[in-house]
Specification:
Mannose-Binding Protein A, Chain A; about 325 residues; single chain; 4 helices; about 10% helix; alpha+beta; four-stranded mixed beta sheet
């Protein structure tokens, strides 16, 4: 469904990028096979409704799974799109290791199966229409700059994944947080939810027609990148005009959809190269603009999986998507 509503945007900030490299790095023995289960019924939209271009296909052009939450009145919030139950107020600033234990020991709303969220879960509660923090308004505001995720970075356990209050995501040194001697505020927010696809389950299906279906999200992806060097506007035009596998409803993915294609369990590139061969360790465009900054749009670097943003005039890579029906 195409969306036409618009609201006011405010400034958000993202992560910087790591250096470039090529050739996918295998998982170290400590993480081999440790792929997170899938717990979400669908990926929520980003919340962005403001238009930044007259060119069809930007994030605000589509409404697929609008964000929807229920306040439970017991210190928790249920995401009605993903099905996950969240701690409404985060647990404050903590080292990563303490955050893991804090969530494991949490007794809240009569439940004791809380845990530190996987980064793809944590990314879904960001709102790319909101001001700082870029977080769904149903959650209690804090002074957090980052929120820890459960995963350590492949090959470097001194780093752990986090989302940030500007709307980005990436792996950061664990010692950056204040209580570990750093100068940044990393907080813990706990989650609970059931496994829908267990680790090792069939994540992708190759359609044999130039497409790959993500069995977790229902999204159907272009198997091989569409354009290796395009501005953001060119990427929108290309995806909207694509006819592939008997379908012409292709589009440029929003930033939450694009981030779901990146895995924290591989680097260089951060994607399953069995199903997406030849994917470069490079930046790919999302259809989501940086709130309040019409000259920039969100990107995912498939080098280390960093979610950040770039000027829309940059020449980046493009992969189209369609679908997204809830499980």
């Amino acid at each position: 469904m195409r969306r036409t509503a618009a609201v006011t945007l405010a400034l958000v900030v993202g992560f910087g990028l790591d250096g470039a490299a090529s050739g996918q790095t295998p998982l170290p023995p400590s993480q081999a096979g440790h792929v997170a289960p899938w717990t979400m019924k669908a990926i929520p939209d980003t919340g962005q409704t403001k238009h930044y271009t007259e060119t069809p296909g930007e994030d605000s052009y589509y409404s697929i799974h609008p964000p929807s939450y229920k306040e439970n009145g017991d210190g928790t919030v249920t995401d009605l799109v993903t099905g996950l139950q969240w701690q409404q107020a985060d647990g404050g600033e903590k080292p990563w290791e303490v955050s893991v234990g804090y969530c494991k020991a949490l007794d809240l709303a009569g439940k004791t199966d809380w845990r530190l969220p996987y980064v793809q879960e944590l990314f879904t509660i960001l709102n790319h229409e909101s001001g700082f923090p870029a977080l769904a308004s149903v959650f209690t505001k804090s002074n957090a700059q980052y929120w820890w995720a459960a995963e350590e970075r492949v090959g470097n356990p001194e780093y752990a994944w986090a989302t940030n209050a500007g709307g980005g995501a990436g792996a950061h040194p664990k010692k950056e947080t204040v209580s570990s001697g750093g100068d940044k505020r990393y907080h813990a927010r706990c989650v609970r939810g059931s496994e829908l696809i267990k680790p090792g389950g069939a994540q992708y299906t190759d359609g044999g027609d130039g497409t790959v279906t993500d069995n977790r999200t229902g999204l159907v992806w272009q198997k091989v990148e569409g354009l290796p060097a395009a501005t953001w506007e060119e990427a929108l035009v290309y995806a909207e005009g694509l006819s592939l596998a008997g379908h012409d409803d292709w589009r440029l993915p929003n930033i939450k959809e694009l981030e779901s294609l990146s895995t924290p369990y591989a680097v260089k590139p951060t994607i399953d190269t069995e199903f997406f061969p030849g994917t470069p360790s490079a930046l790919f465009w999302a259809s989501t603009s940086l709130a309040g900054h019409g000259d920039k749009a969100w990107t995912v670097s498939f080098n280390f999986g960093v979610v950040s943003y770039n000027p829309k005039t940059d020449k980046l890579h493009v992969r189209a998507v369609r679908g997204g029906t809830a499980r």
